[in-house]
Predict the 3D structure of the following.
Amino acid sequence: MQLTSLLLALLPLTAAAARTGHTIATSSDSLRSTPGGGRYGFKRCVDRGIRPEKISCLNFDSLETSSKTALGPAPKSPLQFSPQFSVFNLTRGAELNILPGSNKHSYASSPNSLILSRFTPETRGEVKPTRGRRVKVDKSAGYPTISRPDGGEFDLFGFYMQPMEIPEGVKGVDVWITASKTASTPTSSTKEPDFDWMITFLPSINEMWYFDAHQVTGEQWDGLKEVKIWAQLAGVDDADWELFVDDVWVRWGEDKHHDSVELK
């Protein structure tokens, strides 16, 4: 298991993995153009091009959302996203004035992203999204989790992400990404994950950033049963924070190849 802290800041944008000595340096212009997908140099779902067989990019632009809240349920197939995820229409969210200015384009492709927190729609209440309110983690809700509905394995290449706008006076937002090759059960919930990374977004970040699992960690995130992602204010215990996620690159077995992915 590795635990790595990446510090991300714009102008200049740098990311340093403190415990491994790995350093990433890039510019603000490269945030959207930096190749994703690690081993195969992918970019965004719209930049499909030629790629190895059985690899798919999931975006969420075809999913329906409410005109009142700009939210919709997260898909359950071909990947299953737990109830802590919702689909969010950022175009509609901007019209409803429920987004900070820096989050009006928190997508890799318009108009939808996923939004996640450690609150389910039932426990978060009617204010959606929370617009970054400092709220205590609802520990009973568990962690936002990605898995296959049939319990099978998948490989993770990467995804775009951006926290809800970080308020003044806060050091940043810590984003945790863990992955396991065995599914969680009540008796195995304390088992350490096979991959365990923490990324700290500094307040100056105001664009989507691509988490390239292979390039960032130096490891291949293959044979996974589940991936968990959550965010909280840096240096503030249990202060939940919302995170946008888009364009998820994955691969599965021969029986699960999807060239044109239909999310359900």
Helices lie at 90-95, 121-124, 213-217. The chain has one domain: 5-256.
